Amino acid sequence: MNIKRVKLFLGTIALGFIGTASAVADHHGDKEKTPMQKEFKIVSSKLKYLRKLDKEDKGYYADAAKAVREAGAAMLRTMAYSPSMVKEMPDGDEKSIALADSRRLMGLTYAILCEMEVAYLKKDDKLVRELSKKWKGLKKEGHKKYKADD
Fold first, then answer.
1. Position 110 in a domain
2. What pTM did the predictor assign?
3. Domain assignment present for 24
4. 26 domain residue, yes or no
């Protein structure tokens, strides 16, 4: 994989996680959700599913790893889109920076989700907690920067 593809891949990931479920289009009335919103909804639901798992179950770590892997796959798909808030900006440096930053956030998020999958497979609860905090911080940053006020 060449450097350009890796950068594009990671950039798209950052953008996807930025809003985790709503760093995209406005929610007015009965408008349909954007493709990016739909993917963020999958990310969000897969990560919320982790709270429902029982640590005492035999398959806990495998189920958690699978949920995180599926969240990561959805995150990856979000990277094909741009937040509507950014799309609507006038062309120029500010828009270019916002697009690059949103891709950065999605890339970092995707990387954390990959690390979380590994942590679950290794059954490393301490690392899972640390990575969850990082993920939540990125989500908060993305919402603050790229989520339109409802």
1. yes
2. 0.74
3. no
4. no
* Radius of gyration of the chain measured on its C-alpha atoms: 16
Distance between CA atoms of residues 102 and 19, nearest Å: 9
What is the pLDDT at residue 9? 42
Task: Burial-class residue 84 by CB neighbours within 10 Å (0-12, 13-18, 19+).
Answer: middle
Residue carrying structure tokens 């953008």: 15
- Specify whether the CB–CB gap between 78 and 36 falls below 8 A: yes
Q: Total domain count for the chain?
A: 1
Predicted confidence at residue 10, as pLDDT, reads: 41
Owning domain of residue 113 = 3-16+35-145
Average pLDDT, integer, range 112-128: 97
| 105 vs 117: CA distance, rounded Å | 18
pLDDT at 132 over 80: yes
Q: Is residue 52 part of a domain?
A: yes
